[in-house]
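Priority: low. Protein: ABC transporter ATP-binding protein. Input follows.
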Amino acid sequence: MAAMSLLRISGAGKSFRGLHALSDVDLEVGEGEIVGIIGPNGAGKTTLFNVVCGALKPDTGTVTLDGRDLTGASPDRIARAGMVRTFQLMRPFTSMTVVQNVSLAAQHRRMSAKRLYEHSLAVVERVGLGPWAHRLATELPTAGLKRLELARTLAMRPRVLLLDEVLAGLVPAEREPVLDLLAELREQDGTTLLFIEHIMAAVMRLSDRVLVLDQGRVLATGAPEEVTSDPRVIDAYLGEEPARVDS
Ligand SMILES: Nc1ncnc2c1ncn2[C@@H]1O[C@H](COP(=O)(O)OP(=O)(O)OP(=O)(O)O)[C@@H](O)[C@H]1O
Ligand SMILES: [Mg+2]
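Result:
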């Protein structure tokens, strides 16, 4: 797989005033692969996404996409190269409708206003927000905001999509369609997915491979069943909050 990696993260490190949020993290992801990222609160999961997508410059290490070095590049440039992330806390433009919020994200794609609108509406419908398309983003309930955040990223037609807890705050019935959509993105669009998630049932169902972070370091990586039966992972994460290993 190593020679075929689409995304290659090598020796990534980031400290905040002496706190090693991320230390020497290596990860290679093949095209169309789905990698789940788990670990306790503060393990460095979001920091990894920030470093990979340009929100933070890494102190050490490199990030390459399809052989192109994107280390320390701006989020814009990285998005144009095909790699986009969702935010854990979604902040839509509140004075805009759902479809207008999505259009804004797709603007850098050179399209006529009409095409941009049609494209954005199609994305809004794909994430199940069709009935909300012309309502203000502020009117959306939590589950709707999560879908809008997903739509915002999909409008950019990412080759690699990084999802930061897109299921958090959703009740089980609301999670199912999102999980189906993520599986469909890989099947139909060939999208490569990295997803940070605390809901283990989702991690087990979707991941080809799981990366476990603990205190900024890679604790384990492997097939979902392999990783979740690893005593070190149970010790550092799974054993700690059994209530979270729910549906
Ligand atoms: N911008 C920042 N400035 C200072 N410290 C930060 C910053 N971002 C993250 N940290 C710290 O780095 C560590 C890793 O944080 P990070 O957000 O990456 O964890 P996480 O694994 O995403 O946790 P969670 O599951 O709670 O989302 C934490 O101790 C956090 O407080
Ligand atoms: Mg986080």
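The longest helix spans residues 172-189. Residues 242-247 have pLDDT under 50 and may be disordered.
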